[in-house]
Amino acid sequence: MNDTSQTDLDYLRSVAESGQNAPLIGGRFLVIWGGLAILACIAHWAIVADQVGIAAQYVGAVWLIFGITGTTLQALASRGMARKPGGGSVGNRVSRTIWRFVGLGTVLYVGGIIISVTALDASPVLFDSILTISLFGYALAFSVTAALSGEKWLYGPAWMSMAGAGLSPAFYGRAELYLMIATVILFAAVIPGIRMMGKEPRAADE
Fold first, then answer.
1. Nearest alpha-carbon partner for 45 in 35, 36, 34, 56
2. What is the pLDDT of residues 14-28, one digit of tens each?
3. Which of 59, 63, 126, 130 is the most buried (most CB within 10 A)?
């Protein structure tokens, strides 16, 4: 075998091995964003279902608080992540990248909905579709991470997210949609996030 072939094999082997036995270290972000999303969904339901005596026009404030709080907590939770062993594994690198793009795509979609509803007289029901898009993003992120990290159990949250996304349009325009989504997020994001946190390696200075 020539030197070039051996180098290629060594490279492929190192790539494959970098994803083995390297726990995923992004569980805290699933807990943060998932937990906040559950609270926001419950608050949205309570307002729209007239359970708290707050005008429905204020649901936007709920999601604004969700975004600001989530961004702040993520910045705080990110401190020290670089020192976590295994952060450079294939699984963790892919997970970070795909969740980043899922988040960015969702934000851009929200922006498009806001423009459509406020400037183009589209139906406010379009806001409900944000939940569908988000869950499809969850399904994509979990399935790709499961395939490349070896954490096959993540296919469970992926399929659960997919099912929630597929079912959600049947609830558009109904307050119950937000309770259903809160339940899906609990089992498809928060609980998996807690499980991932329990398997995280400690940084050297912890």
1. 56
2. 555 554 557 888 899
3. 59
* Share of residues in the chain with pLDDT > 90 (%): 71
Position 196 scores a pLDDT of 92
Smallest Cα–Cα separation from 125: which of 60, 180, 172?
172
**Which two three-digit tokens encode residue 34?**
């998932």
Q: What is the CA radius of gyration of the chain?
A: 20
Long-range contacts, stretch 118-126, CB < 8 angstroms, 24+ apart: 125/172, 125/173
DSSP reduced 3-state for 78 = coil
Q: How far is CA 187 from the centre of its chain?
A: 12
Query: Could you read off the pLDDT of 38-95 as tens digits, one per residue?
Result: 999 999 999 999 999 899 989 999 999 999 999 999 999 988 776 777 777 788 888 8
- DSSP element (H, E) containing 30: helix 27-48
The residue whose two tokens read 């490279």 is 11
* CA distances from residue 158 to 15, 89, 134 in whole angstroms, order as listed: 24, 21, 12
Tokens at 99, concatenated: 């969740």
